[in-house]
Amino acid sequence: MAVRIFTVDAFTDRPFAGNPAGVCLLDDAPEPPDDAWMQSVAAEMNLSETAFLRRATNGQAFDLRWFTPVVEVPLCGHATLASAHVLYEIGSLSPDALAEFNTLSGRLTARKTTDGITMDFPLQPVERVADTDVPDALRQGLGVELVAVTINEGRFVVELADEDALRTLQPNLALLSTLNRACVITCRSETPGYDFISRNFLPHRGIPEDPVTGAAHCSLADYWRAQLGKDEFTAYQASRRGGVVGVRIDGDRVILTGQAVTVLRGTIEL
Question: Catalytic residue among 44, 49, 159, 163, which?
């Protein structure tokens, strides 16, 4: 038996940009496949994340899980965007319906809008790290001037001096992998149309550099609210592929907006 699988470029309006995600629809399977199978599929797809969707027993929401090539993760923005995009595109959801997902990070929702797809995610605040407490592996792994270092359970968010330092950075991934956290670098944008830009490195999860990371913006939103004194941003993630993320803080939630494009459709054997 085979199930449907897609590759979707998320946080972009054109193919071969943004962040590609796998989306595997499990409703055709008589029973949910085991974790080892899903991990093997994610390794075979070899994308930052592959999402696995199955309609929940109540018939309204979808159970959603995300796997990198090496590990399951608790939250993924671009693969959630890709999942909602597929559900709308194949008609599993009507254009005006709310997409509801049961995940390791609780209930997440997405909705189709004129600007793309808007997702409701948890805000993930960061705390400042004193200069004397910045890990040597972070300083040496980045190898550039660090304007500020903040942290939460999932990642470091590090401000760099300017856009040139950010775009040209070539980190030591072996050192960063020892931190066991994502390393998000960011700076004020010098490019018109954007409030801040970023890059994201996750070598500890088998992802050297993630092209566009929705979940990182749950922390970047908190950091830049303090720096810029506002709650709404247009952000650019300056990976080789690049992508645009709309960001708005709403209480303890972050509203992320992006577009997506399907680039591949097929089936995979159970």
Answer: 49
